[in-house]
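Exercise 7.
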Amino acid sequence: MNIFKKLKVTDYLIILGIIILVGIGSFAVLKKKNFSKLPIEKEATIQFEVFFRGVTISDTVVPFAVGDDAFITIRNVPYTKLKIVALDGRPRMKLLPSAKEPGYIIAEDAATPNLYDFIVKLEDKAKKTPDGYVAGGNKIKMGIPVVIEGEKYKYSGTISKVEEVEQKVEEETAE
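Solution. The predicted structure, written as tokens, is:
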């Protein structure tokens, strides 16, 4: 009992703090509760479109194609390879006044013949939370910066659309 007489108030506070921390840690481990995560509603397959503005291509071949695997970086955090499921590329367009009728016409910009805008659609598995979709620890929302990288290219864009893919269930008919 001599040991309790030598301890000061700060020693008791440190011991109490350690006991509280051990208690909280034990509670979290035993209950398998993660206080920082949102509850997962379900797992789903999502497709998200990434818009790439002003891609310069001096070759006649587009560097990526439907079916290719491309490495994805989301918010400067390397993620994984995903399959390109759709691709839409257009040359840079320009708004010009119309000489024949009032208004404007849209035409290819002759000043930038090698400049294109692309929309690349990617597919991934994600968890649906009340805050949206989460894939690999990354929130997948419109406006999130994404870098797509292949063997011969690396382009930066932003997510412009996120949608859940309905899983088709084939029903067998009993005869």
